[in-house]
Amino acid sequence: MADRYLSFTGTAPGRFLTGRLGLPQPAALRRWTQESPAFEGGVLLLTAGKSELSGPEFPAPSDTPAAVLLDATGVRDVEGLAEVHAALHPVVRSVAASGRVVVLGAPLDAADHHQAAAQQALEGFTRSLGKEIGRGRTVNLVRLTDASAAESTLRFLLSPKSAYVSGQVIEVGREVGRAQEADVDPDHPLAGRTALVTGGARGIGAAVAETLARDGARVVVLDVPGASADAERLATRLGGSALALDITAPDAGARMAEALPDGLDVLVHNAGVTRDRRLVNMPAERWSSVLDVNLASVLRTTDALLETGTLRRGGRIVATASNAGLAGNAGQTNYGASKAGVVGLVRSLAPRAMAEHQVTVNAVAPGFIETKMTAAIPLFIREAGRRMNSLGQGGLPVDVAETTAWLAHPASGAVNGQVVRVCGQSLLGA
Ligand code: NAD
Question: Does residue 15 belong to any structural domain of this protein?
Answer without folding.
Answer: no
